[in-house]
Amino acid sequence: MTVADAPAQLDRDLLSSLRSLLVLGKLMTEGADEQQILELAATAAPSLARCNVVAVELAGRCGGPSRQAVPPRQTAQLALVGATGGRIELPDTGWAWAYPLSSLAGHLGHLLIGAAREPSNEEQFLLRALAQQTGGALANRRLHAQELATAAELSALNERLQHSMNIHTRLTAVAVSGEGSEGIARAVHELTGLQVAIEDRYGNLQAWAGPNRPDPYPKDATVRRDQLLSRAKREARPIRDGGRVLALAHPQGDALGAIVLIDPQRTAGEPALMALEHGATILAMELARVRSLAESELRLRRDLVDELLNGTDEDSGLARAMALGYDLQRPHRVVVIEGRGRTRDTDTFFQAVRRAARDEPAGTLLVARGADVVLLADCEADWESLRKSVMRELGGGRARLGVGECCERVAEFPRSYQQAKLALRLPAQAEWDDRAIRFDDLGVYRLLVGIEDLGEVERFVQHWLGKLLDYDEQRGSELVRTLSHYLKLGGSYELTAKALIVHRNTLKYRLQRIRQIGGLDLGDPETWFNLQLATRAWATLGVLRCG
Asked: Which superfamily, per CATH, for 450-546?
């Protein structure tokens, strides 16, 4: 090739290189990831000039296609040349230049080129073009990656939104259809694929959905249950409790119950928790509705019971009962229950009696009156079993129960109520053990209560016990009480001393004083009988004076 042909050859070589750069640019922008772009640049540089890519410095990281770190000295030089690029010093390299990787998105870093000698102007032009193409391809790849990430995020968001709408639609349909707690549990089970339990505030199972329903259902101790509910209220979101995830149903801050996912494998993710929270919201609405209805019905029933106990005409009582769907024309007994559990909370006691009366069964019409609960029993229940059931519901404590005579008509309820109160209070006055007492079974006490002229009864008591009563009042002694126990227990010294919690000698002394003060012969059968009747009359008068 002649000297005259050299410029033409250079132009052809430059044109060929530019065409190669165009093809390279297309390869960089079509499907190549960031690492592939850098490798293409490193491969192309030696074909454009007698050089090679020593390293690539990108914003936030340094290294070549093989990820060789840029030494601190060169990193400082790159900071000096900045976005315009420029000459730098590299070890074992005669010439080195940092070409800026620029794009419309801004400065992305530098392409570090090294050569034994300085390339020609044409070669440097091609290297700058390579750096520009590399920067543009990197910016395009990052933009594309960002668009993909945004699209994926939008897709995930749309999926969550769709899932939320499906949950809302399914549970709203349950609420509207009135399927109750069972329907809510079933819907959450279908949405999550997990077993679902609905519990009341105390941890009792109210509804279950899914296989392998436990029987009996495990229930936490009261203290642990209260701690769990407190934590759930405090965190205001579903909480994990071992192999369970629990969400509270608490409209207006009052915990009415809880919905639980049974998840021992801990597979419940965000969709399942979303379904659980939606389920808890619908459950709260359902429980609030049920409670409102129950309170309304309870108030109406309480009004009916109060009216019957205070006395009402037949037509009014029957009309009220009919409005409640209750058959008042069946035989009833009025039952009065007194007791206490670990606390003296009257509502706790009322609910214990209500559950016991339901389970025995004994009746559904009941009302709290002071510390007592009054039940209108519509069947002949096992009254002692009912009393013990109340104590079980209380978790211990004590309970006493009085039962009035059977009522056939509305007008008879006040009489049965008074009889039940007498049957309840007489055992306490007579110091009997806690038990269920029917007025029908009171024997002589029943006859005494039925006497209209109590003045005659009082005169009888004064005739036989007057001196002992006066002595007890003046001295604060218990001679009449001692005599009552002695007669009731058939004259047994051992049983009487045990009942009074006194020594036998103390008992003998008291009986001697009774003989002396009252002028009584306790060995005379006639005297014995009259004293028994007098002590029972004394106890009966004590009850009548109190109530």
From this structure: PucR C-terminal helix-turn-helix domain (1.10.10.2840)
Residues 6+ apart with CB under 8 A from 249: 255, 256, 257, 258, 259, 280, 281, 283, 284, 286, 287
Let me know: does 87 contact 97? Beta carbons within 8 Å: yes
Same CATH fold assignment for domains 12-146 and 178-291: yes
pLDDT digits (tens, 9 = 90+) for 493-510: 888 888 888 888 888 888
Dihedral sign from CA coordinates of 495, 499, 504, 510: negative
Task: Tell me which residue of 363, 319, 317 sits closest to 337, measured CA to CA.
Answer: 363
Strand order through the sheet with 195-200: 205-209, 195-200, 257-262, 244-249, 239-241
For residues 313-325, average pLDDT: 79
| CB neighbour list of residue 71: distance below 8 Å, 6 or more residues apart | none
Query: Which one-letter amino acid corresponds to residue 242?
Result: G
d(CA 518, CA 512): 10
In the chain, DSSP finds a helix count (H) and a strand count (E) of: 17, 15
**Residue (of 135, 184, 191, 197) closest to 166 by Cα position:** 191
CA distance 405 to 521: 38
Higher pLDDT, 21 or 182: 182
pLDDT in tens, 210-228: 999 998 999 888 889 889 9
Taking a C-beta distance cutoff of 8 angstroms, is the pair 416, 432 a contact?
Answer: no
